[in-house]
Amino acid sequence: MAEQDFFKEIAMTKHPSRTADREIAPAPLPDTIFQAGEEAAPELFADTEASFEDRREWFFAELDQMRERFRPFMRDLLPDLPETVKTYPLEDFAFRYLDRHEREIFSGSRKSGWEEVKIPDYRGPAGENGKWRGCYRCGFFSPEEGRELRAKGRRAVLAFQCVDYIARIYVNGCYVGSHEGFFAPFSFDITDFLEKENELLVICENDIPILGVGPVLDGDKIYAATGPGYDDPEEGWHHCPAGAGIFGKAALEIRPSLFVEDLFVRPLVSENGVEVRIGVRNYTDQVVENFILETALFPKNFAGEEAGCLRAEAACAGPGKNEYRYFIPMKDMRLWDTETPWLYGALTELKQGEGTVSARRQTFGLKTFVSDETTEPKGKFFLNGKPAVLRGANEMGHLQQCVMRGDMDQLVDDILIAKLCHMNYYRVTQRPVQEEIYDYFDMLGMMHQCDLPLFGFLRRPQFSEAVRQVGEMEHLVRRHVSTVMVTFINEPMCIRQTEDPNDKYSKRYRLKGHRHLLRDELEAFFAAARKAVYVENPDRVVKNVEGDYDGPTAEGMPDFHCYTMWYTNHGEPIGRLMRGWLPPVKSGWMIGCGEYGAEGLDNRAVMEKYYPREWLAADSRGRWYPDKIVRAQTPSVQGDWYPEQHTMDDWIRESQIHQARATKLMTDAFRRRGDIMNQTAIHLLIDAWPSGWMKTLLDCDRQPKRAYFAYRDALEPLRVNLYTGMSCVYEGDTVPVEAWLLNDTGDTRRVAVHAAVFRENGTLIGAWSHEAEMPAAGAVCAGMIPARMPTRTGVCTSAGEDSGAGELTGEGGARASAAGISLAAEAGPEKIRITASIVENGVVLNRESLYLTVYPRSAKKLLARAEGALAREVLRELAQRSAAKKEDERPDCLVSSDLSAEALERLEKHVREGGTGMLLLQEPGTEITVGGHRVFAKPHTELFFADAGEEWKQYPVSMLYNAKKGYIDSTLGCILETDMPGEEILFTYGKKLPDSGAKAHLPVVKRCRLGKGSLVLSALSLDGRVGANAGLDALLSRLMEERGEQSQTA
């Protein structure tokens, strides 16, 4: 769709320049060179990669094995407790929207326009129309009236699991209370209003989120950009619109007047015990004295005896909430972890006289999760005393939908799908969720991070409310052993007046500075929020910010978000990221990356099952484009990374291939920085709705995309990873391939690394071996594999002593070099496989293969002349790759990077007389005239991909290695804008989307007929690339050799 992409705009936010954050340089590489070894056993290097289709078929059997493996941990072996609460669920309601100025809500309950709904219910509208009120109405019976309950020492309580956003509660026309916030449970004592027959009205008020809608409109709703969504293809499916409703359970509960409301078991593993915090609610107006609190601790999901007990006399309980704290020693403590999630239960009874007045049970687990801030770098994680790293994914609604639909089997599967992918944590993105989700995280051994629902900003009037909701958040999750960390805001954005009134920060200051906290005030909020967390749970690890666009934060670890292979160059360009560079962050700390990824379209089955028919319709030529999908980003972003397609199946395949590639390259890059990064989460794992947020690795029907398996492979806990920035090399070259050892476990390992190079036909070229240590929860480069490329019989493998470099005098007296240039060889390139494996005690733990394309050197020659420094460098590099000798012939190809009038005149004359010319335009903004035509090097985002005309697709010019910089660099930084007719050799795609159909081509290399000759205009970025990318060299060589067949003459 052509509408503005709000989230893409946010992602393209640049890091402020006036900051203490600094880009992180790559880790130093060792001097170790792998030694040639004996030919190793074939099983070490077997090429066993399975197809996507096979792996997708095996996936469901593997998931079934995971179900059986973790089924025992879902057992409940706890003893029964006396029943002291009677619960009457409230599920059937009527709903209607309230008119904007409607005040007579009680007489309005007799109006028409009500619809019958079943709780949970979540709905729109959202966006610009997101400020609205609605009324839920429910009639219910009570077994007894309020005065009868009061006489028996009982209370009638309305309990809500969660209502979005502000809930105002009325019973029988009487106001009983309100609650703000969409995630926390709340309840009200309605005993004084209760009759036998009752009417409940819940006024649900929604607002525009603080993040806002577009650049100006915002509201006071503490909501980020994530929630359950609702079933509406135009709005409700997409990126969790800020709807509202009663989307958790609601019930009438008959409780004792002295009620055990809350249990929190705080593990004190080093002290061989636990602290039990017992929350007791006194519903009376009087102090209640002399009662007993008894707590017993039992194994829950494994057989065992009582593990600890307590009997304490409580002196008194005042009106309202009381919290009692006791230490209970434990014996034979079993610690909870992700592989063996052992659980216990605390059973508490409040007794008066001989009877039990109130009883409660609470599941808990025993673990320690620590962020060590005493050593450098600070922020290293330790789980149960061992080094730990968090590898996971973001979650945006699918788990909530499982709970809302009552589909706990699917909830279990969604967690196991993550574990099958070697994930050990979920970032439950930008909000707390229903408690059932945390219960299953506990049972299945899935750690999680819980975020306060703030995104970008915090409104000044909501400071205190936000701190209150922080307390609610920690209170909700503190009793769950799976909770490891909380955060306070997602992607805070800089609001700062700068010297430039037109830059993004100054504009935002004008639009938002009078409404939102500035960064120093936001840091004050973080400090207050940390205190609120401490009061609830002093052991919680806190990370102030997820994806900081205005860092550094004053306290705690930094985190960045990086979509560099989708929102191009976001965070850090992919070549630098792969080489080891990281975006600017706070120094001296371990680092997290809480979001990264790329979009892959839904599988065809989901499209055909759910999409509106108009989304699937092809055009009159039978072509289909994804711009029909509401809020899909593929139409606007795809052109930066892969060719445009024309059928649904092709679009699905190519988008998913790119997503898988981005997933692997970025995950590998982050894992290689295990020395400084200890938390990463891909965005996302599973979609909640069709086309909801298609960066997911599985669609809403839990069908894997290719990227799921790429991520699974990349997250293997013990891995060998091969890295080189080179992809197209020459025969006879020795390519230094780094062998990285990646260890996400808590134990250091000693392994043997074996590596070998194989030709396309399977012939072994060479083998190497090395022994190395894999540090716990870290990464290390074990050394370099000197991978020697094969040569072909009868073909020279190096330049001759005189390879063609020399000096000629150009016209006008200009000095220019001449070179004999290697052209495309008759024999085509060959795929070479480099495979490495790691072995421990004779067992192959992991293997990985890297493929290089090896080009032959050529004895063909072309005499060319260069004008300009870059042109001379290009010819020099091409000459070094040629086996040709210099011949005393007049050059018939003129390559020029000299844009002076005299040089352009010589170039034009050379071409018009029948020669081939190549004009290299490198500087964005350059404008010249050639042959009477304007040629403009229009600035463009630096891209790593350029598409090609059909006959030129054989030349790989994407992800080019820059030999001067030592990493993969951009393919282009400008495009050609000219009216000179000609053939588009290479091009990128326009960003402005048509209403439907193919996007415009923006030429990068164009071949034009000029007089009797051929002129090639090139905006390719060539500095440092020529000579280091054999495919690029072959393309340039062919363009210099051929004149092209153009029917038009300039």
TrEMBL record:
Source organism (scientific name): Candidatus Limivivens intestinipullorum
Keywords for this protein: Glycosidase, Hydrolase
Gene Ontology BP annotations: carbohydrate metabolic process
Residue ranges constituting the Beta-mannosidase-like galactose-binding domain according to the UniProt record: 151-206
GO molecular function, one term: hydrolase activity, hydrolyzing O-glycosyl compounds
Domain of life: Bacteria
Domain spans labelled Glycoside hydrolase family 2 immunoglobulin-like beta-sandwich: 259-366
Residue ranges annotated for the Glycoside hydrolase family 2 catalytic domain, each copy included: 378-457
Name the record gives this protein: Glycoside hydrolase family 2
InterPro entries according to UniProt: Beta-gal/glucu_dom_sf, Beta-mannosidase-like_N2, Galactose-bd-like_sf, GH, GH2_Domain-Containing, Glyco_hydro_2_cat, Ig-like_fold, Ig-like_GH2
Protein family (similarity comment): Belongs to the glycosyl hydrolase 2 family.
Entry annotated with the keyword Hydrolase: yes
